[in-house]
Amino acid sequence: MLETSARLLRLLSLLQAHREWSGPDLADRLGVTPRTIRRDVDRLRELGYPVNASPGTGGGYQLGAGAELPPLLLDDDEAVAVAVGLRTAAGQGIEGIGETSVSALAKLEQVLPNRLRRRVGALNAFTVPMLRDPQPSAVDPGVLTELANACRDRERLRFDYRDHGGSPTRRTVEPHRLVCTERRWYLVAWDVDRDDWRTFRADRITPRPPHGPRFTPRTPPAEDLAAYVSKGVSTRAYAAHAAVRLFVPLEEAAERISPWAGTLEASGENSCVLRTGAASLDVMVIHVMLTGFEFEVLEPAGLTEAIRTSRDRLSRALERSPERAARTGDGAGRTPGSRSGPGAA
User: Fold this and answer.
1) Where would I find the H helices in 49-208?
2) Which of 140, 238, 312, 345 has the fewest beta carbons under 10 Å from its own?
3) DSSP class of residue 173?
């Protein structure tokens, strides 16, 4: 009896690990006959686990969705990974998920063996999260689930979308992937009406079901979708674009420049290239200066002229500073148009 119970738990664990198993594969994994697998599947069903079976050479067994969530069987590394993931999720920008994550983590830690509880406790005690945005955009977890399901099922998605200025539009897309950063979630999708790839902020999406029909996936716009989204939100979305060489190693620049502030690529051992965007070249000067690194302009030429203009403006501001006027006594601190001397009002 104990041997049968242990085998049932192992069978349940295998069914949870993969979407579908063939009978011979399960029998080989458990070291039993296909007939024993059929009997064990019947026992799981009697215990309330909805195990679906499809006949034929291409058929197999699949754990279906039941009325209640069955107990999950996790090995040591999986249990630690889930606990750490829940702790991280508690601080992410998903609306309402923080309290739920803490509740789930409390239940998990209650049943963890002491050896695993110590590992999780050490990770929690000696890890400090560093979120660059103290108020990340909150996304309804139901919306994220709906978007993920549409990506998985390859169904056209309909939704209302608010652009950067708050103007509403109705979109029909073929969803491909969700991309997340520590502050935002994005949907990469083929926009049917605009006949091109687009990136949408998930917190601006309001799904409008029913969705469908199914579609044949297209070749994605890039192999590295994280880099694609980073370039889109940091460069393509702005009117002015620039490339500058920073005289620091790529790793050092990446510590200070976030993916939504620009994309970085190596350019020698002690330098890298920053590609970024801004509302104007004047704003771009400030954006590049705030990196705190020495740099040279690669493109456009207009950025160099904008830097000269800013340099001259700063020099004039220094010339007018009260500190310099007091030091030189030449009245340099006067504002333009001011008067001094006996005739001054």
Assistant:
1) 76-89, 97-111, 114-125, 141-153
2) 345
3) E
> What helix, strand, coil percent values describe the chain, rounded to 5?
45, 20, 35
Tokens of 265: 């690529």
Of 204, 172, 205, 203, nearest to 189 by C-alpha is 172
> In the chain, where does DSSP find H-type helix?
2-17, 23-30, 34-46, 76-89, 97-111, 114-125, 141-153, 225-231, 250-256, 281-289, 301-319, 322-328
Alpha carbons 263 and 286: distance in angstroms, whole number: 17
- Strand pairing partners for 263? 275
C-beta separation of 141 from 200 below 8 A: no
For helices 2-17 and 23-30, what crossing angle results, to 10°?
A: 130
**Lookup result for tokens 């992937």:** 177
10-residue stretch averages of pLDDT, the chain, 345 residues long: 72 78 89 91 86 76 69 72 70 59 67 75 61 57 82 93 86 91 82 93 91 92 84 73 94 86 87 90 92 94 94 90 65 45 37
SS3 319: helix
Q: How many helices (H) and strands (E) does the chain have?
A: 12, 11
* CA quadruple 322, 323, 324, 326: dihedral sign: positive
Instruction: Give the number of C-alpha atoms closer than 13 A to the C-alpha of residue 14, restricted to the C-beta side.
Output: 22
Phi/psi at 129 (nearest 5 deg)? -70, 140
